[in-house]
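**User:**
If convenient, please work through this fold.
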Amino acid sequence: MTDTVTEFVAADDQADPSPEAATVEQKLIDQLVGQARSKGLQLTGEGGLLQQLTKAVLESALEGEITDHLGYDKHDPAGKDGGNSRNGTRSKTVLTDIGPVEIDVPRDREGSFEPAIVKKRQRRLTGVDEMVLSLSAKGLTHGEISAHLAEVYGANVSKTTISTITDKVMDGMAEWQNRPLDRVYPVVFIDAINVKIRDGQVANRPIYVALAVTAEGHRDILGLWAGDGGEGAKHWLRVLSELKNRGVEDVLMLVCDGLKGLPDAVGEVWPRTVVQTCVVHLLRASFRYAARQDWDKIAKALKPVYTAPSEDAATTRFLEFAETWGKKYPAIVRLWESSWPEFTPFLQFDAEIRRIVCTTNSIESVNARIRKAVRSRGHFPTEQAALKCVYMAVMSLDPTGAGRKRWTTRWKGAMNVFDLAFDGRLTAGQL
């Protein structure tokens, strides 16, 4: 069977595109499949026809490469006493999409032969790395990926190897984190994802995600930053200055969840930017102070506050809420009072803008994907490992592009309202 496979590869190396040649190739394929079936040989799996064919193709290609390198064919007298020459082969197992394949790699006496199709020290062919990265981005742990590859492909890939593969994304992450950005964004959302990192002991640490909506209505994640939970104005000044140095000259509105020191830093970097507290986060924080049976009542009582037609009306509605619920839940009243300067800005705008900045739907779908990947890991040994996981989850968002179309449709109408409300700054930033 192996000889037949080798003959097929040799014939394919010299194939011509004529119909007659295609007929011969088909007969060879039929012959291979027929012999495999008659001898009870599986088409796939260990020792199967595809594995043997892959071995023959790789070894044939390697033989062609060393022939080009040395300048003469195998067993050709021209190579005798001609300087560098063949020096046998060495066995090597490579992981392919159909499983591990053992091949014989030719060597030369001078050690100058550098194969291209299977490079020195290369143990995986194209496709395996991409598969590992894809599975990791979907939230599978290194152990689960190893088990999956063993079960489906019969490939023995250690957790250490998988970690080595995923470490390759760090170079791409550094380039992505420093890429040039647009001059102006209508809205930037900044939110935190809590991850568990073992630094002496396991503790929660935030990773901040900056998600922007572009002037064309597309979603663009601007970057990721690790923190320790005690960030202040100095930290945010560094983050925002980084964004400005990458080309962001203006942000119309920045929506966040009461991050300490962020409004002051925004005022330093983009003085005209409106800082808006996320209303949904404010509501969720309110529920943490209330008994579950009162959640619906509190949500109903607070709705007139954040849907009020003006700041004065919102103040009146909030005083009514405080009078009704202040004695039972004074912490909720204090929460809204402390958040009031960053809560009220969006009340001056059109309903179209309110609808966008009042909710975090724009970023919640991103956070859901990230949290899924983070939760499956349990905790991370280092900050870099956590950032790598979040970055891969971000890169796996919307691979088909279908979400991009929905985003464009959802935001397109609001862009005109933004440009009017902010005196043409959005349009000017695109010139």
The chain has two domains: 2-120, 182-428. DSSP finds 18 helices and seven strands in the chain. The chain has a mean pLDDT of 78. Residues 2-120 form one domain.
